[in-house]
């Protein structure tokens, strides 16, 4: 045997040679059996050695340097606010915590009703320090309406904080504490995120401070109906109550997002987490720092989704885009020549696959910018330049005009942000009037909120009008309605 062949297993061959010298392997069959064992060991060992030497395609990340360098800049936020609690009647037939209480209470209201009371509400969240002098970024819903805010650092130092600025549309808030030489986090560029990249979240889920969780980017530019101006980062990073406002790090140790919300059916993490891109959040933060109002871009259109039937009617190859239902008089789109029935396919050379993608694209455009808008009109492509306007104050939600649902014999209208907050819901339309017909037969009454129709979350009157128009006749349809703080399903059968 050659030297090169013996080298990896020299000890084994030396043992065989010793056995031969001692006369234990004199006969040929025994010697051949030992050589077979050695050759087999060489084959298996060589394969294992080659596999160990090969470089893996994907290396497992080590997150410890991120925490060691920037973990101290993540803070815990405790806020206190007050809410009004309506008193119960001494003779109420059901207790206030019963799901039937809101429905029975209106029949038993009277002079003996207990007076409303103020109740303190405490909430926990997270945040991160962006300046050595004590500026902190968090989610707006963590501190909105708070009368007392306390920030705790990882070194157990506690500070009182004040709100410098808060944006509901961006769900971003800037706080200030009196400190100096504080640890900070570096900020990244969320526009460079790609699906599949590793992420690290730090926060206080359920009050467990300085908890670290990891995952990957699941999707980018994800629209959500509750926050139309935020192109969310979707990930599978475990996020739970208390994580809100905390940082989302990339592998360079840069903050690329603010942990904001989850989709859940039971209040716990189910694999769908959503974070505000840091580029979006910092647009608000920079305005707060300079004491400026945030100006949102405005196109001046009411849009709806494109169904398969609508796509065929509009001579579209696919059911994509945002269909213009109406335009604001003298709005930017109307002035540029856009018309009802046009389907917006691209905005500023970016594709618009669904109606939810358009609001964040428009809202994040600086007013006064000229933007090419690609549309389909009567089956023909067309590009029109639009000078984007400034979103007017107190402008109602796109598609927020009252709508009469003739098939249900009722009228619905939009919900204000305040009403949504008071009822602790994120979407829905309010029932304004009900005439004898399918809705009344199902028990739907004025003042109720329709949250869901046939399994679809309701976000605007124009959306529910589109859904109702396309529902099958003489078929039971489930409708999720809400009165006060309780929700229940009813069944509507349409003619």
Automatic annotation (TrEMBL):
Its EC number is 3.4.21.107. InterPro entries: PDZ, PDZ_sf, Pept_S1C_Do, Peptidase_S1_PA, Peptidase_S1C. The active site is at residues 141, 171, 244. Its main location: periplasm. The keyword Lipoprotein does not apply. Might be efficient in the degradation of transiently denatured and unfolded proteins which accumulate in the periplasm following stress conditions. NCBIfam families: degP_htrA_DO. This is Probable periplasmic serine endoprotease DegP-like. The lineage of its organism: Bacteria, Pseudomonadati, Pseudomonadota, Gammaproteobacteria, Acidiferrobacterales.
